[in-house]
Amino acid sequence: MAYRIALNFEDGVTRFVEANEGETVLDAAFRQKVNLPMDCSDGVCGTCKCRAESGSFEMGDDYIDEALTEDEAEDGLVLTCQMVAESDCVLSVPVSSTACKIAPQGFEATVAVIEPHADAAVVLELDAEAAPDFLPGQYVNIDVPGSGLARSYSFSSAPGEGRMQFLIKKIPDGVMGTWLSRAKAGDVLNVTGPMGSFYLRGDARPLLFLAGGTGLAPFLSMLEVLARQGSQQRIHLVYGVTRDLDLVLVEQLEAYGARLPGFTFATVVAEDSSTHARKGWVTQHMPQEMLTAGEFDAYLCGPPPMVDAVRGWFAETAVAPASFHYEKFTPNAVLKATA
């Protein structure tokens, strides 16, 4: 039996390798030409230390305490030269991909569907012969034909699907939006990825998802994965937008309510003239019982002002999630990993 090991480097570049039963992660990576940090490979130096974000594994006892202390092991750190996977795993590698001579992967994709949602957003669906594996929440960079520019978009589809889906905000005179207005099925795009340190770490605790505008996209990917896994965890999504027209794909959220017994969501509109049932900001509509309990994982994706406001609110109110993962996006720029 082989297990899928996702290696997420410090700069957000991700590479997947397969580890055979009984094979160490370090050996599996080297076998597939991924040069993880190492010196001794015997559990002595600690150079290959990484953080296990998810999955089960065996470490054995063939390493010394100076390489990996008991406290570090309890905190989720592992030695890849000793780690033997017992399930699919995700590892955070504390060096850049370039230090390991790993380059982001590129591939070609073909436009399959372009579906506008009023003047708010476009759903873009792409097919690819060699679609990449990715972690739910990650993104790719898509080259805009004829512009010499690239734009970053999170997957709204789940890993392993035959067709990739993205939710793209419409920007007046935006480079991608202008191209999409004349694009057609069959057009070819150059895509690079996956990338990003914003991804689902599992559902060991209740999950609070906070989405701003088209920052909804990565949460759709996460929800699909959780639904396929049969998650019974408490999951609440607050989806905030500026205008009523900006609320898109709400029917997909309603469908997840039927598939995930612990899932609820609330939509919020900021514009004063809105007649929506909930107005204001996402911080005004978070479930109080979840915040009071404290043992929850928070995920936040939206434009920079929203992300900064939510982070500031957590700091001011002393609400401390067990873990907090966020990503800022600017619709007309290439993304950078933030957490």
What is this structure, in a nutshell?
The protein is α/β, with parallel strands linked by helices and 339 residues long.
Give a structural overview.
With 339 residues, the chain is of the alpha/beta class. It has 3 domains: 2-99, Beta-grasp domain (Ubiquitin-like (UB roll)); 106-195, Beta Barrel (Elongation Factor Tu (Ef-tu), domain 3); 207-328, Rossmann fold. It is built from 7 helices and 18 strands. The protein has helices at 25-31, 70-74, 175-180, 217-228, 250-259, 288-293, 304-317; strands at residues 2-9, 14-20, 49-54, 57-58, 77-79, 84-85, 89-93, 106-117, 121-127, 139-144, 149-154, 163-169, 188-195, 207-212, 235-241, 263-269, 297-302, 323-328. A 6-stranded antiparallel β-sheet has the order 11-10-13-8-9-12. A 5-stranded mixed β-sheet has the order 2-1-7-3-5. Helix 5 links the parallel strand 15 and strand 16. Helix 4 packs parallel to helix 5 (250-259). The chain is globular. The two termini are 33 Å apart.
The average pLDDT value, as a whole number, equals 94
**Largest sheet, if any?**
6 strands, antiparallel
Radius of gyration: 21 Å
Could you estimate the helical fraction of the residues in percent? Answer: 10-25%
* CATH class bucket of the largest domain: Alpha Beta
Number of spatially distinct domains: 3
Structural class of the helix and strand makeup? alpha/beta
Order of secondary-structure elements: EEHEEHEEEEEEEEHEEHEHEHEHE
> In what range is the share of β-strand residues?
25-35%
Low-confidence stretches: 334-339
Total helices: the number is 7
What strand line-up does the widest sheet have? 11-10-13-8-9-12
The termini sit apart by: 33 Å
Give the overall form: globular
Q: In CATH, what is the homologous superfamily of the largest domain? A: Nucleotide-binding domain of ferredoxin-NADP reductase (FNR) module
CATH architecture of the largest domain: 3-Layer(aba) Sandwich
Write down the CATH topology of the largest domain. Answer: Rossmann fold
Q: How many strands appear in the DSSP assignment? A: 18
